[in-house]
User: Fold this.
Amino acid sequence: MGWSVYRSGQARPGQELYTQKEGAFGKTLAISGCENNTSNYNPVSWWDFYGNQTPNLKFMAKRILGLTTSSSGCERNWSVFESVHTKKRNRLDVTRMNNLVYVQFNARLMNKRRGGKIN
Assistant:
């Protein structure tokens, strides 16, 4: 099971149950659990408890909820850009500079995959 489940449309029947609040999603506790977002509310636990009727939708929801919110990916790209865009190189045209950033970023990724340290 993976993202192809959603693209293939297999998660959509469960989506209708969810949006129409049918089955387990229509229970009073399920609805109040969504509406009363307190600090104790855990959406992953909610999907574990109420999502058994729609396993594909449950899988997708838990995957989405498990995503981290971070800017580290952008910061890595910015640091590569900053190393390329120095006073010495600031006369590069945009296309050439973008190509240089692309090459340096991918070189760092390949080095990381090999187990090396990223500079």
The chain has a mean pLDDT of 75. Residues 72-113 form one domain. The chain has two domains: 3-65, 72-113. The CA atoms of residues 53 and 84 lie 52 Å apart.
